[in-house]
Structure formats: C-alpha cells, structure tokens
Amino acid sequence: MVLYVLVLPALRIHFWLQHAAVGSLWAHSEPLGKTISYWFPRAIDLNAILFWAGCAVSLIIAMLISDIVNEHKLTNQKNYIAGLLFIVCGSLIPEFVFLSPQMLALLCVTRIVQKLFAIIKQDKPGGDIFDIGWLSSIAVLVYFPSIFLLLFSFIGLAIMRPFSLREWWMVLIGFIAPLFVVYTIYFWQDRAGDLLGDITNIPNLAWGAWTSTPAAKAASGVVIGLFVLAFLSLPRILFSSLIQVRKFALALVIAAGLIILSFFMQTNWSMGHFILLLLPLSILLTLFLSGQIRSLFTELIFLSLVLCTIAIQIIF
C-alpha cells in the first residue's frame, strides 16, 4: 500500500499542475451522478477536489484488484503487480485521473468481480449474489453504460456456479431494489416521467461532439498493446491452470468484450469509458507476467509502461 501511495500521485501530479479541463467529465444526468455533481459549483477548487478524490478512489480500486489476485491465488506467489499496473495505466490521460462517473462505476465493477470470484466456493452465497445485482444497479445510476453489468452478472454466475433459478432471481431483485428507491423519490417529486431520460443521460445527448485527442490516441495504442500481451497468456491459462483460474480468466475476457461494446451506449462519447477496461487488463496482464520465467522481461515491460505514461503526459 505504501508503494501505491507513493507512485499514484507522482504519476498524476502533472495533470493537476497543468489544470486539465475536467468540467465535462460530469456532464451526466444519471440520478446518483447528478446528485454528486450538484455540489460542484460550490467548490472553491473543483480541479483539486476531483484530482485528490480520483487518487483516493484509484487507491481503493488498486488495493481491491490486488486482493482479488492474492485472495484467489491467481499467481503462484503473493504480489501487488496488478494494483500497480492499474495505477500506471490509470495515469495515461486526464479522463482516467480525475474523479468521474466512469471511475465510480469501475469501483462497483471491481467489487462485483471480487464477489463473483468469491461465490465459486461458497455453500450459501445469497448475500454476495444479491450484492452483485445491487452494485450493478448503483453503477447504472451513476453511469448508464454500466448496464452491461447486469448481463455480465448473469454470465458470470453461470460460469462460477451450477444453474439455480433462485440465485438468478436474487441478482435481479438486487438490481431492481435501488431503482425502486430512486423511482419512489422521483414519484414524490412528481418527476416519474423524467426518470428514464435521466438514467440514460438523454439530456446530454451529443454524439457528434466527440473528438479524440493525440494523447487519447497514444493511450489507446498502449492499452491495445498491453491487451495483446495479456491475451498471449490465455492459451496457457485456459488449458493448463486450475479450473477456477480458467473460470476467472474467461469471466474477465467476457467483461472486457462487454465494456468495449457498451462504449456505444454513451450519449456523450468519452475516452473515460475505457477506464473500465483497466480492471480486466490489470489482472490478465498480471497472469501473463507471472508466467514469465525471466524476471528481467517483466521489469522491462513495467519500465516501458511507466516511460510511455510519462512520455504521453509530457509530449501531448
């Protein structure tokens, strides 16, 4: 954790000092996201608040990712590479650094994956299964494209456990519960007709306004390259590892595919959506690096990633 605390602000301080534009990150009408952003106009230094809040949430996510890898013994030895990879990759562009609806959705995704992996050995996983649906709904109320999590929850449940209609109903009930509470609040305010539009972020519809910056293009190249490396380990994982590790890897690959597809569910396209990819990327890349016999190769990969992150920040 000490290493995370030292590395995280060191790699991100550039964006704060350059006063990166962050106002558009919260151009969202989702009920929970709008409730959070309601207080922003009252902030004295919004840039600093979103920067340090983003660092705090990123630190929590990094520790959760490391716990997932170590608790379920995805590697032969206990290590904290996955969390460190998340921190470095999450420092590529401003959309990954400052607190945003996408980052809060990623926190929910991380907890869902953690609980999904945990139920594989539980005899009575009712509480965790309900939480999976509940967290999926919370993510949707913050960032609508997270709706893919409902499908991922059912797919993940099918991968981890034998089919049980009761467990599938628990996911659905957990998903509906927060939506029912929000609907009740809208109904009391005589705004029930606005709920669907707010959840889907229709008021901020602006597909044609999206442009990709040179930094975003460079960051995309880095992430794609890392995914190529990560997928090189899949044949070894899917055919040679323990059954539970194969299931975990398959769930992460499916999650990555759904995240990419859900990009097109945004009403205001943003590269910040791809911060959600950093969860499966960090874990899959850790599996790849842990399988390398030569530690020098692992160190070179990590050093190259750090240098690429710094170069993108300085050049672009």
Could you write a compact summary of the structure shown?
The protein has 316 residues and is mostly helical. Helices cover 69% and strands 0% of the residues.
The major β-sheet equals: none
Rg measurement, Å: 19 Å
What is the overall pLDDT average?
83
What low-confidence regions span 5 or more consecutive residues with pLDDT below 50? none
Count of domains? 1
Helix percent reads 55-70%
User: Could you tell me how far the N terminus lies from the C terminus, measured between alpha carbons in angstroms?
Assistant: 30 Å
Total number of helical segments? Answer: 15
Structural class from helices and strands?
mainly alpha
**Beta-strand percentage range:** under 5%
Principal-axis shape equals globular
Question: Which H/E pattern describes the elements?
Answer: HHHHHHHHHHHHHHH
Number of strands: 0
Q: How is this structure best described in words?
A:
With 316 residues, this protein is mainly α. It has one domain. Helices cover 69% and strands 0% of the residues. It has helices at residues 2-17, 31-37, 46-71, 81-89, 94-97, 101-118, 126-142, 148-160, 165-188, 195-199, 214-232, 234-240, 243-262, 278-290, 295-315. The longest helix has 26 residues, at 46-71. The chain is globular, with a radius of gyration of 19 Å. The mean pLDDT is 83.
Chart the SSEs and their pairings.
Elements: H1 2-17, H2 31-37, H3 46-71, H4 81-89, H5 94-97, H6 101-118, H7 126-142, H8 148-160, H9 165-188, H10 195-199, H11 214-232, H12 234-240, H13 243-262, H14 278-290, H15 295-315
